[in-house]
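name: query_chain
kind: protein
chains: 1
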Amino acid sequence: MPDMNGHVFRGPLLVLLLGSLIIVGSRLLPIEELLRSAPVLPALPTIGAAPETGTATATLKGPAVQPPPDTVRSDTNGMDAGGPAAPMTFPKAPDDAAEKAARLAEQGALQQAEMQRQREAEAEQRRQAEQQRQAELEAQQRREAELAARREREAAVAREAERAARRQREAEAAAAAARAAEAEEQRRLAAAKPQLRVFVEADVDERAGLGGFTTAAYGKRLKIELGLAVQEILGPAAVVTDDENLAFRELVRQGRDGLDRVCSQAGSARVLLADVTIEAAGFSAVDSAYWPQLRMIALNCENGLTQRTPKQRLEPHRLDRFGFQRNFSERAREFISSQGYFLAP
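structure:
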């Protein structure tokens, strides 16, 4: 159809030419292979013409797919001299775009799951590492606490040992002071008490010619004789002269305890004992069977040492002032002379 200037509009011919090129290219080129190997790109906005206003509007759409085949008809105004143009049909794009999109979505989901799994694994590793670090920290704290407790126990043991040693030293010092005080008291008492006392315990028997004496009276006379013998040998100040006598025979038989009691009752540093016994029993025609026997005992009350003589029979003498006086004095002097170092103060 000619325009106002007399020219004929050729628009339909141009459309037919482009359609022919598309058909030939689709048959010559491997479009399906190109679509499978082509990377998936995000959807781009397409520009469509609004039917009312004629302005272009950009809209975002899904994955790019080939539009369905359109049938393009020639404008009736573009007929050439040969008659109306035949309709053109474009080839339809392959129908596997949805399947490919599904595969891509599945691959994306798998990738997301793998990434999530990796993140969870990394989080688990971090959690385990944190737990291990916390466990090591707690173990270190426990070791430090145990070390501090052990040091405290050792320090407590050392302090207790020091206190025990100090108490022992104090106890030893107190004991030494007590011993020194006791020794001083003993020295004071020893200085105050007499150095030597003499005691005599004697038996009497009429058959021995001693019927005129009691045991106390006869023992008192022998005690005087014994004191005189000590004064003669050791000096007048060596012995206490008094009338007190002591029954010691049973105490001596008790051993060490009995001797300690003798010292306690005597109240002196040393004691000289004369034990005169008559041991004959029944009747004898021999006069000497009734003569008394003498045993001398010297006792040191400070150290508990003793000196003894065996029993010796006393014999009567015509110069006796009383029965067996002379022989008793002689035996006493012999013993005192031999034990002077023991009896001397």
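note: The longest strand covers residues 270-277.
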